[in-house]
Amino acid sequence: LLGTSESKEILLKSLLDPQGKDPTLQNVEVDDGDYYLFRAFLKAMRGFILTWTSYNQDFNARELAAIMNAEMFNIQKFLDRYPDLLKVRADGPAALLQAKQALIDAIDDYLIASDKIRNDTDITAGATELITLEADNYGETLLRENLAKIKTSLQQNAPVQFINNTIGTEYYVYGVASFSRTEPSWWEKGY
Fold first, then answer.
1. pLDDT reported for residue 1
2. What distance, in Å, lies between the first and last C-alpha atoms of the chain?
3. Which of 14, 92, 158, 175 could cysteine-pair with 88, CB 3.0–4.6 Å?
4. pTM, 2 dp
């Protein structure tokens, strides 16, 4: 079903406007890159959820809230009371392997999405792109490089050295105000 561009567009538009009542959405172009970006997000969420649920989180939340509200929280006493807290569950190793693969797949989908969105030149007349990325966007290039390093790290069980010198990134999403990672202020640059 999701093999054609038309079916991918129908899926994303139905998620953006389930009732089909937004007349402006008819002029939004949903491309393969948008679909892959959405799929990358879902796979990343799956990876994070599998990671989170791989660890024992069995504790009394009301007790914790009461202790914290009374400002009597002591981490050592809390861990003594719940010695298995945040230890890998019995089924945890298998879930962690699934999480690792989900994150690798999410990175692959993001890299495909990024390439397709940046190189998209086929714009329908009168339509607006759902998501756009400038081809020379330094921040997004940095993100792709870091994701490639994370993927290699996950595949080789090795540490990763991130690149963190950003200049600025701005994303434009149809129907939503643009959001950005702004350029560092002068005092952050060391002038």
1. 41
2. 55
3. 92
4. 0.71
